[in-house]
Prior knowledge:
By secondary structure, this protein is an alpha/beta fold. Helix content is 40%, strand content 11%. The chain has helices at 23-33, 37-45, 47-57, 78-87, 108-118, 128-131, 144-155, 180-187, 204-213, 229-232, 257-265, 271-287, and strands at residues 9-13, 61-64, 94-98, 123-126, 159-162, 193-196, 217-220, 243-244. It has an eight-stranded parallel β-sheet with strand order 1-2-3-4-5-6-7-8, sandwiched between helices. Helix 2 packs across helix 3 (47-57) and helix 5 (108-118) runs parallel beside helix 7. The protein is globular. The protein binds zinc ion. Residues 12, 14, 65, 196, 222, 248, 251 line the site of zinc ion.
Amino acid sequence: MSIHGYPVIDAHAHIMPMRMIKPGPLAEWRKTYGDKVAEIQETLEDPQKLLAHLDREGIDKVVCINYIARDLFGFTEEVHDYVVELCRHAPDRLLPCGSVDPVYSKDLARDTEQLIHHYKIKLLKVHGPHAGYHPDDYLRDKPMLAKFYALAEEAGVPVMVHTGTSIFPGARSKYGHPMAIDDIAIDFPNLKIIMAHGGRPLWMAEAFFLMRRHENVYMDISGIPPKLLLTYFPRIEEIADKTMFGTDWPSPGIPGMRVNAEAVIKLPLSEESKRKILYDTANRLLFAR
Ligand SMILES: [Zn+2]
């Protein structure tokens, strides 16, 4: 499968149980999708419908982003049962992502081990702005977060950290500052870290610096309008090996997977860079392990 000859991985799509989202935040989806929300919700619950959607969109593989965000959205540990069951239907195309909850968890090490060894989660998400903590809080009041990173590092499971702002009511964007990752990359040198959204729209210079400074720091470009990609990252070809295409679909305001991939293909980048960004980097880091 390909789009204009390019195979495509969406390394950041919110393939999640929308039924869990509270009415308040769900209103944000209604603003973009109106009465289509029910249809999207069904697509995300039914593996056959989801795979058919990916086929129509020309998307080869997708990373199914899930994380605990109890207070903001209503997402609890239940998201892991959902995503593991869903991905079981096409393990070569659907990759399960989950998270721990450093704010409410009583035993972060046990939760991390369960995700890695019982659920076989392939990517761990850290979402500061939606779950209410700094990714480097192991240096302050959450020492057990160090255990979380150490276990992920030891198991070879990459960690995706939300970087940049979030516009959902109640989201605290200060927790999205990417410089916290500088410490994490130093303290856990073998941990693969993916900066979701490349710090957009405020901290792209920091994100670019971190990718050049740390061998194991990567980014996805989800949530960045493709037409702004080169404005945000004018030297993106230097980091194409560490950059992954992603859409954030079906987050409010996202046009769609195919539309976004086509827009990236139209950018004045070398064919080699486009192949890396659209497929190779994510495939190497997440699917070919
Ligand atoms: Zn996202």
